């Protein structure tokens, strides 16, 4: 194109020079040059008119992907890492059949030691007539979510309770507490989730309390079971969650097939979410069973999921995609270990 331009410039220069020399003796040559120039102007105008729509179309075509890329960069997608039920730590002590989400007792995996303030999620089944004998704890926040059966709790604070389905017992071990967890039933096992979290303060006064959250309350809804005391404030109604000294909330739901629930991120800024689906039997069903979906990840009974790149304010939607109701727990927590 540069050769053509140079040639045209040279031709124009020659014509101009000729025009200047000949104009006094040849009016016809001047008229021809003027007509040629006018024709060129028309051709250029037509070319510009035809090129403009094409340029706009091309502009729109190539700009859109750039906008999508920018949007993706400024609003990163959730990072969801599945924790399959069978990949958890597992032990069968005859009296205790258990799965460990995080490193616990003889099970150790450096990839799964904690998540935010969460330190333990054990799914325990205790055989009839057996249990955890009296033992001590300090500093940890410990709560038990009863799935089936009856669990007897007895501690050094003088508490003695029999906990059944829907009940949650909470112990803030603080400076130290001793307790036992026992299945006094002679016929059936007790199935519960034992959860430990690290408090944001050490040296707390030992504390114990229980609350009940029914299946009806949790049916197709998220019910707040535990809540950070800084967010809970002075609320102490029977339907209010249990307060704990960690930037952690725990919701529970029993979600019917095809139903959805939406979790509102509890605080602004960077957060972490952990999901845990409760098992109905000792192993995940090979087909069917309770299943939930978050993002593009499907979780069956016993599966868990680490969710990073969470930011509040925001929402996370959970859908039940199995052929039976899925019972699950949702933890919303600050990003750092306590």
TrEMBL record:
Query: Which InterPro entries does this entry report, sorted A to Z?
Result: Pirin (IPR012093), Pirin_N_dom (IPR003829), Quercetinase_C (IPR041602), RmlC-like_jellyroll (IPR014710), RmlC_Cupin_sf (IPR011051)
* Coiled-coil annotated spans: none
Q: Where is the Quercetin 2,3-dioxygenase C-terminal cupin domain?
A: 237-333
Write out the transmembrane intervals.
36-54
Q: Does the keyword Oxidoreductase apply?
A: no
What Pfam families would the database entry show?
Pirin, Pirin_C_2
Residues in Pirin N-terminal domain copies: 90-196
Q: Does the keyword rRNA processing apply?
A: no
**Keywords for this entry?**
Membrane, Transmembrane, Transmembrane helix
Checking Gene3D superfamilies in the record gives: Jelly Rolls (2.60.120.10)
Similarity annotation? Belongs to the pirin family.
The protein here is known as RmlC-like cupin domain-containing protein
Native source species:
Dendryphion nanum
């Amino acid at each position: 194109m540069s050769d053509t331009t140079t040639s045209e410039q040279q031709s124009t220069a020659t014509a101009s020079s000729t025009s200047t020399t000949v104009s006094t003796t040849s009016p016809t040559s001047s008229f021809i040059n003027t007509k040629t120039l006018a024709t060129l102007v028309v051709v250029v105008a037509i070319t510009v008119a035809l090129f403009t729509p094409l340029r706009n179309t091309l502009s729109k075509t190539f700009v859109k992907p750039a906008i999508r890329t920018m949007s993706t960069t400024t609003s990163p997608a959730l990072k969801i890492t599945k924790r399959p039920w069978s990949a958890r730590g597992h032990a069968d002590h005859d009296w205790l059949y258990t799965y460990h989400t995080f490193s616990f007792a003889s099970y150790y995996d450096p990839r799964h030691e904690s998540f935010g303030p969460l330190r333990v999620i054990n799914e325990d089944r205790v055989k009839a007539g057996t249990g955890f004998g009296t033992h001590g704890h300090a500093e940890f926040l410990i709560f038990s979510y009863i799935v089936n059966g009856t669990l007897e709790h007895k501690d050094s604070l003088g508490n003695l309770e029999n906990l059944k389905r829907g009940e949650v017992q909470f112990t803030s071990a603080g400076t130290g507490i001793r307790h036992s967890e026992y299945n006094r039933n002679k016929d059936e096992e007790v199935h519960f989730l034992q959860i430990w979290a690290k408090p944001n303060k050490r040296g707390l006064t030992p504390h114990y309390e229980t609350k009940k959250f029914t299946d009806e309350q949790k049916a197709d809804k998220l019910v707040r079971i535990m809540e950070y005391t800084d967010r809970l404030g002075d609320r102490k109604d029977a339907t209010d969650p249990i307060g704990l000294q960690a930037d952690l909330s725990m919701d529970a739901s029993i979600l019917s097939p095809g139903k959805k629930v939406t979790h509102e991120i509890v605080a602004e800024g960077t957060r972490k979410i952990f999901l845990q689906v409760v098992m109905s039997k000792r192993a995940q069903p090979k087909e069917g069973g309770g299943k939930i979906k978050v993002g593009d990840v499907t979780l069956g009974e016993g599966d868990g999921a680490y969710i990073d790149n969470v930011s509040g304010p925001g929402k996370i939607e959970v859908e039940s995609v199995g052929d039976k109701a899925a019972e699950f727990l949702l933890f919303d927590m600050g990003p750092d270990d306590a």
